Amino acid sequence: MLRITAVAGVSAAFGGPLVASVLREVGLSRVSETRTRMGTIVTLTVVHPENAAAHDMIATAFSEMTRLEAILSRHRADTPVGILNASGRLERVPTELFTVLSQAQRMSIRTDGAFDITVAPLLGLYETSFHTRGAPPSSAQIERARLLVDFRAVDVSGDRVVFADPRMSITLDGIAKGYIVDETMSALLRAGAERVMVNAGGDISTNVPGHADPWTVGIQDPHAEGGYTDFVRLSGNAIATSGDYMQRFTHDRTHHHIIDPRTGRSPTESASVSVVERSAMAADALSTAMLVLGTAEGLALLDRSPGPEVMFVSKTGQRISTPGFDCHVA
Questions:
Q1: Rounded Cα–Cα distance for residues 315 and 223 (Å)
Q2: Domain boundary at 163, 197, 223, which?
Q3: pTM passes above 0.85
């Protein structure tokens, strides 16, 4: 699991007896629940005047996450994504899927293909090869799979999606979790939550009403399990991290779950990339793209389209970040 977790402190998770006492004095309750969703650990934290109402909000939010996962998951044959991958086309595309596909297309154009949801055939090839042979696929196998990878070959128009080649398939693993985090945050705020943090396996969205203190979260050190590279403050924005340590095929992390769509192989420069953005969906997708691009290409992209703040951690442990990212460091 990608470990970006809320850490101790008043602004982080409202934890501890003293903070609980302060909340009671001002008539607020803090409720936090953790469940498994989207194949990862999800924690929802809500501050609200009524304890029972906060629990109801969280229960409803988890139900909404389940509903969205049933639309966007590639791991189930009965989801719209599962049907699309099986047949190469999908009619009457759900609004939620259309939103994610449209944003994915924009990210692919923005990153010149470093982010590409059609990378699924390559990912499947690696998963099968390591499962059956304990080794990476051959160069010839990789090149054949690459023929099915091209975001421009996905036609998203009206209420349908069609692949240029029915053998193509997509994975929304690098963007859908962020979208679901954003939607969960919106649902909790509409329900009246005073202050919220949604943490879905490291994709984190926050809100900070008025002039309240920011949340503080720790970013996992990719070279030290349980350690942190930095602590950052979030004031109503989101953060996501992509790393070679999350789902690795080999112990040395030469092969892992993030694959460069342009080469068919895992990127070799960065161990992790953290992105602070306005939305979790944007941070989710961009962190994946930045890991693929590496530091030089990634920073060049940010020069052309500023806004996100990014920290790269290299395979050797070197950290390079944008000036704005350092402003978030606690």
A1: 8
A2: 163
A3: yes
CA 144 distance to own-chain centroid: 28
Mean pLDDT of 228-253: 88
pLDDT at position 11, please?
Answer: 36
Residue 14 above 60 pLDDT?
no
265 Cβ contact list (under 8 Å, min separation 6): 142, 255, 259
Neighbours of 311 (CB within 10 A): 25
Check pLDDT > 60 for residue 273. yes
- Distance between CA 326 and CA 330 in Å, rounded? 9
Distance between terminal CA atoms of the chain?
23
Shared-domain flag, residues 220 and 312:
yes
Where in the sequence is the domain holding 86, given as residue range(s)?
Answer: 80-163
Backbone angles phi, psi at 262, to 5 degrees: -85, -25
* CB 195, CB 179: distance < 8 Å: no
Domain boundary among 163, 183, 214: 163
Q: Give the largest Cα separation in the chain, rounded.
A: 67
Whether residue 180 is found in the same domain as residue 296: yes
Tokens of 302: 């940010």
| Buried-exposed string 99-137: b where 16+ CB fall within 10 A, e elsewhere | ebbebbbebbebbebbbbbbbbbbbebbeebbeeeeebb
Question: Could you tell me which of 166, 172, 121 has the C-alpha nearest to residue 145?
Answer: 121
In the structure, what pLDDT confidence band is assigned to residue 327 with cuts at 50, 70 and 90?
A: confident
- What total number of domains does the chain contain? 2
Residues 30 and 117 in one domain: no
Considering the domain architecture, whether residues 23 and 99 belong to the same structural domain is answered as no
The Cα–Cα gap between 267 and 292 comes to 5
The rounded distance, in Å, linking the Cα atoms of 315 and 272 is: 8
The pLDDT tens digits for 210-223 are 657 788 888 988 88
